[in-house]
Amino acid sequence: MSRTRIVKGTYTKVSEKGHSMYSNENIVTNATRTVTEEGTENGLYWGSPKDPPQTARRIIDVVMFVAGTTDPINTTGERHQANTKYWQAIDAELKQKTKESYNNFWHKIQEIKLHYLDLHIEGEFFSWSGDNDTKERNLASERLLDVMLRTYRFWRNQEVHLHLIGHSHGGNVINQFSELITSREMIGKSAILKRNNFTEFPTPWKIKSITYLSTPFFQRKHQLNHGKLHQDCKIINVHNEYDLTQQLIANFSLLNMEGLLKSFQMEKFENGITILKNVKMDLIMQYLKGWYNENKAIAAWREMSNAFLGINLIVQEFIKYIDSITIENSTLANEKQSFISLLRNVLQWTYDVHKNFSGGGRHDKITFARHLKLTQGINTLNILFDIKTGVRDSYILSLLANVFGESRGITDSIDATSWTPQRQTRGLTILDVNITQHDSYNSRRKKSAFDTFLRGTQSAVQSNNLEDLLMRLFSQFIKPAQLQKITEGINAAEYIFTGNLDAQLKILRGNLERYHTLVNQYHAFLVTANDEATIKELDKRPGSLPYLAMTSHSLSHTQFWQQVEDGLRGSFSSGRNPRYQ
């Protein structure tokens, strides 16, 4: 509402006591001739105004959105990925809202704003990286308080009821915020809050409700502090039983997340896997085992060229992934460089073999053997894929387990997460909203397979067997039959090699057979055959690990669930607007 007062004559305002003016924006004084101000006794002061006094019987409701980890590893490396665009579902390419945007949590809650006398919704100004990183979440809690105190600076003496809504690790930012606001010491140490001379949380302010959307609740850190909770504080918890991030991935709080996977290009990784899957191993086998036939030889050449192209693309992306990881541990950093050196040998070898089989010339089996350049590549492969009995003595799994080990490589801490805040709320009533049935994956009838897979991965984390965890995860990207084909191809190649090369091939086949046993044991067949054939994008393919980690994890903020709406309405304190009964 705006108001303009025009006085044609002289306008005089006399106050027997004090006269105060407060504005949430600007106060402008403009005169054609002169502006005169005088402080007869104490002079004039600038820059230290007092806050407006409390208005009797006024309660202000403030809803604050805190974004989290839609992308649990922030592959884009953006500094403020968790921002208002996140909630409003603005298409990153089109730079505009989509049809889905107008039905999501953010837009639907805006519709009830006018139903209450003093309800304010803030989601425009607060942002943070969204990284799965303890330090980033702590800084985000300080930014959250800073934004609140700047945005609502004239309400510090008013009774304000905060309603905090956090998706994913946004819920843990809220928990850390609850710890921060109870400690003047923590506030005083914050460089972010010092910039605006903020030293304490306003006494009349209380947290009236917290809505957790797919938040992974830690057992040790980011615990909910009850010191500034309203006595009637309501806890709302929305969760999806297919959410892999909440129940597994968030266990790992990683260091230096920004740019960790910035150079990783999933489409290239997927391209390599697709090319490898489409290799017709039967054509190669017919050529190796049968009598010479030119047409069969040409077909085998083509399939060999494609096979090594696929491997080459996969190795390229894997090198980028490993090389992007910053490791402070000097011993482990040296191991990483040795590993990358081995991978580069493989990269060069697969490229050379791909080029050999792409060219023309003779197609006899002697040339076939020469084109493989096995002397160049097989020793490196046997080092990389060395595995004696199981996951614990696998070279590559042990190396990666060290990289992801707690306080060793890139992992700050490993803390088993839970889907429920029950341990933290200590007796507060929790409104539980289970949205599992709304996940598209639920219609695939794979719940039992998913639960078995999840139990296995969680058990590996609890027993600190990261090698086993990694093997279970890797096994979802390849089927036992596909690895079996590669093993059979090596077995067939042994027919045309003798001496040391034959011995090295047998070692490689033995290593791959042991990996095949593990893949056969751990591949959970989470994706239906129809989805695998028709949906190419992994994050849109129900049951794939990217889908379970991102799409299932994001479902909670795509709708304003009826139970959540009812719960929030019941927690607002400012009173219903009689015009919207």
What keywords describe this structure?
10 strands, 44% helix, alpha/beta, 581 residues, 22 helices, two-stranded antiparallel sheet, six-stranded parallel beta sheet, elongated, Rossmann fold
Outline:
The chain is an alpha/beta fold and 581 residues long. Helices cover 44% and strands 10% of the residues.
Task: Tell me about this structure.
The protein contains 22 helices and ten strands. The model is unreliable at 70-80 and 256-263 (pLDDT under 50). The protein has 581 residues and is α/β, with parallel strands linked by helices. A six-stranded parallel β-sheet has the order 4-1-5-6-7-10, sandwiched between helices. A two-stranded antiparallel sheet has the order 2-3. It has a two-stranded antiparallel ribbon with strand order 8-9. 36% of the residues are buried. Strand 2 (90-91) and strand 3 form a beta hairpin. Helix 13 (374-384) runs parallel beside helix 19 (499-522) and helix 14 crosses helix 17 (466-474). The chain has a domain at 1-260 and 417-443 and 559-570: Rossmann fold, CATH 3.40.50.
Distance from N terminus to C terminus (CA atoms, Å) equals: 22 Å
Anisotropy-based shape: elongated
The largest sheet has its strands arranged as 4-1-5-6-7-10
Secondary-structure-based class equals alpha/beta
Spans of at least 5 consecutive residues with low confidence: 70-80, 256-263
CATH class of the domain at 1-260 and 417-443 and 559-570: Alpha Beta
- Looking at the overall shape, the CATH architecture of the domain at 1-260 and 417-443 and 559-570 is 3-Layer(aba) Sandwich
Integer average pLDDT: 85
Enumerate how many helices there are, as a single number.
22
Largest sheet: 6 strands, parallel
What is the helical fraction, as a range of percent? 40-55%
The proportion of residues in beta strands is 5-15%
